[in-house]
Design brief:
two-stranded parallel ribbon, alpha+beta, about 160 residues, 5 helices
Length: about 160
Amino acid sequence: MTLKMIYTDYLNNELGCIEITASDKGICSVYFVANPDKPVSPNEFTALAKQQLSEYFTNKRQVFELPLEQNGTAFQNQVWQALLTIPYGQVASYADIAQRINNPKAVRAVGAANGKNPISIIVPCHRVIGANGTLTGYAGGLERKQWLLQHESGGMFTL
């Protein structure tokens, strides 16, 4: 059995510290972390992700162009692919995502898969809100979710 090499780097910005991990195939995870606790061992994909995330945070990028290595169930991967179709500056509900994957009764399962998304910001789970327009859970915290939505809408997003 061959062990998969994982590379790690960090990006600090106004939202805090973001940990980026990648394999030799692509980005594996992007998480907000309280403390960077892994040794920095970048590769070409972590460097590219840092660059594109920096461009995103400075309003120079709306679409990410990165290879992703998403490790989830078939259903989770289907949901995560649907998240990639939510345009910058727009939002969708869990029901909208369930419709996009042709499984309209899977609203709760979509919510669970959304919550397991390991590649935040790049796979825009922050763009999913409740059917009534309210902010719902976000692993990075609701304050960050609201910040990201306001950032993408030019400050126009309101609850």
